[in-house]
Every structure is written in C-alpha cells, then in structure tokens.
Amino acid sequence: MEALGLLEKKIKNLVEFVGKLKGENAKLKTENSRLKDENVKLLKEIKSFEIRMESTEGSILEQSKNLEELSQEKELTKIVVDDLIKNIDSFVQENQQ
User: Fold this and answer.
1) What is the DSSP letter of 1?
2) Is 64 helix (H, G, I), strand (E, B) or coil?
C-alpha cells in the first residue's frame, strides 16, 4: 500500500509538472508570436530606411555632380575674366603709345 501511495504522489507531481510546462509553453508561444510580429515590423523599417538612404545617396551624388559642374564653370569664368583683363590692359597700353 505504501508503494501505491508513493506512486500516486509521484503521478500527481508529474501531472502538476506537465501543467506547468504547458503553461510555460503557451507563454513562450505568445512571446514567440510577438517577437515574430516585431521582427516583421523591424524588417519593414529597415527596408524603409534603405529606400530613404538610397534616395539620399542619389541626391548627394546629384548635388556633388552639380558642385563639380559649378566648380568647372567657375574655373572657366576665371580664365575668361583673366584673359579679358589682359586684353583690356593690352588695348590700353596700345592706345597710350
């Protein structure tokens, strides 16, 4: 009889343990689902940031190209103005003689 009581106690403990495991499993499934949803949300945010970053990079490249063109135009203008000043100086010297 004593062995039967011991077996009954062990079975009761085992049933309680299985109940706890089921409860923990349910909590873990809920947490896993929440984390999956959060992961999807974060992946969408990453994609959005990547698109914005590509757009920004394109804009920066375009502005850099524009700055390069402006720099070249500035240099060309400087050369033309220097040449114009030399021509004016030359013309003035010729007229003074």
Assistant:
1) -
2) helix
